[in-house]
Design goal:
46% of the residues lie in helices and 11% in strands. The protein has helices at residues 36-39, 46-51, 75-92, 101-104, 111-132, 159-178, 201-221, 246-255, 268-273, 278-287, 314-326, 347-374, 376-384, 391-397, 403-413, 424-436, and strands at residues 10-11, 21-22, 30-31, 34-35, 42-45, 96-100, 135-140, 183-186, 192-193, 227-230, 240-241, 262-267, 291-295, 334-336. The chain has an eight-stranded parallel β-barrel, surrounded by four helices. A two-stranded parallel ribbon has the order 1-2. 41% of the residues are buried. The chain binds D-xylulose and cobalt (II) ion.
């Protein structure tokens, strides 16, 4: 046991003062006809929780995540991470995990050796999965850390680098399928550019699409039935990233005929970096039938980069859960792509971070239920557009009219004032009333 001093985390209710207990996440509680745990399939991100150790651009690790292995970056350490990860997930009741290939094993200079290590570790992970019932939400290939990807992976200028990207995707798909993963993610960390002075954007985007097409073909061939995902992000590490936001990614997928196999994995902090709210990105994905999965985290309004904080903003979680419920749930889940702050450097902090994230989304779910049951917001939106229920409105909706006919209506009216009020402040007051009464 790694987390010897940490008990199994239980629901104790909103008045509990126990830091190691859920105050709101009550897994078996029914909300809108489903258990909380069914609404909220949470996942652990291997890289942050078992990897990130508090180091930043200015300082070394603050927490020891060797998990009792004698040396980090060894297969002994990789196996220790598996043990720690499964103990951690079991104690929290987390049912899923997500991984990059190189989160699981140390990368060798020889890809054949890396692949052999991946085979070995996934054998061990499978044993732990069978023992615990914990499942794989999604896998991905890290095509951004290795120096060979400095000019991109699918967008690289070097055909040999492109082969390595293909090889990593192929292997990550093999492992995802072996572990029964529900999804496979493309996050294009290096798929973008710094200056047009050295970049052929069209060439790069076409090559990314070709790589994705090969991934779909191979994945389906080896029996992958789940969704492929693009995870949009506007910048960081690149200045311009091609998968800027949901709308841009959807248009890319449609342009290259990938929209049948792909959905989106929407990350909250990426949404805010793109100048959007989290719920905006969820809505755009959802109305295009492409809301697949969520990377649940939070940005910092005062910082312009990806901070991957654990979700604490209950308003944001509430609006997000409204989108998820209206979407009919997710085919994926809620992956905590989040890490402790550098000074939160104990094992207890690791658990407290997940408790915060899970309770925040539980509150979001409970609030969303109240807003839906209250009905005033939905009623307001319906009424706002009610003038389109007129026969002329219906003709517009059914594409049975013309600019000429509409212009003659305007000419009849001669002039008009403003349409009905948007009443934002009244609606925000309703939200506060529902949340705090
Ligand atoms: C980076 C990020 C990634 C993806 C997977 O910002 O979110 O960890 O989730 O590659
Ligand atoms: Co992410």
């Amino acid at each position: 046991m790694i987390f010897k001093d940490i008990p199994e985390i239980k629901y104790e209710g909103k008045d509990s003062t126990n830091p190691l207990a859920f105050k709101f996440y009550d897994k078996d509680r029914y909300v809108l006809g489903k258990k909380m745990s069914e609404h909220l399939p949470f996942a652990m991100a291997w890289w942050h929780n078992l990897g990130a150790s508090g180091s930043d651009m200015f300082g070394r690790d603050t927490i020891d995540k060797s998990f009792s292995a004698s040396e980090k970056g060894t297969m002994e350490h990789a196996l220790a991470k598996v043990d720690a990860g499964f103990e951690f997930m079991q104690k929290l009741g987390i049912k899923y995990f997500c991984f990059h290939d190189v989160d699981l094993v140390p990368e060798s200079d020889d890809i054949n050796e890396t692949n052999k290590r991946l085979d070995d570790i996934s054998d061990y992970i499978l044993v732990k999965m069978k023992e615990t019932g914990i499942k794989c939400l999604w896998g991905t290939a890290n095509m951004f850390s290795n120096p060979r990807f400095m000019n991109g992976a699918g967008s690289t200028n070097d055909v040999n680098v492109y082969c390595f990207a293909a090889a990593q995707i192929k292997k990550a798909l093999d492992i995802t399928v072996k572990l029964g993963g529900k999804g496979y993610v493309f996050w294009g960390g290096r798929e973008g550019y710094e200056t047009l002075l050295n970049t052929d954007v069209k060439f790069e985007q076409e090559n990314i699409a070709k790589l994705m097409k090969m991934a779909v073909k191979y994945g389906r061939k080896i029996g992958f039935k789940g969704d492929f995902y693009i995870e949009p992000k506007p910048k960081e590490p690149m200045k311009h990233q091609y998968d800027y936001d949901a709308a841009t990614s959807i248009s890319f997928l449609r342009q290259y005929g990938l929209d049948k196999d792909f959905k989106l994995n929407i990350e909250a902090n990426h949404a805010t970096l793109a100048g959007h709210t989290f719920e905006h990105e969820l809505r755009i994905a959802s109305i295009n039938n492409m809301l697949g999965s969520i990377d649940a985290n939070e940005g910092d309004p005062n910082l312009g980069w990806d901070v991957d904080r654990f979700p604490a903003d209950v308003y944001s979680a509430t609006y997000a859960m409204l989108e998820v419920i209206n979407n009919g749930g997710l085919t994926g889940g809620f992956n905590f792509d989040a890490k402790n702050r550098r000074p939160s450097n104990t094992y207890s902090d690791m658990f407290e971070a997940f408790i915060l994230g899970m309770d925040t989304f539980a509150l979001g779910l409970l609030n969303a239920e109240k807003i839906i049951k209250d009905g005033r917001i939905n009623k307001f939106i319906k009424e706002k557009y009610s003038s389109f229920e007129s026969s002329l409105g219906q003709k517009i909706r059914n594409e049975e009219t013309s600019l000429e006919e509409l212009a003659s209506k305007a000419s009849e009216l001669k002039g008009m004032g403003t349409p009905s009020s948007g009443k934002q402040e009244y609606l925000e007051e309703i939200i506060n009333q529902i949340l705090f009464s």
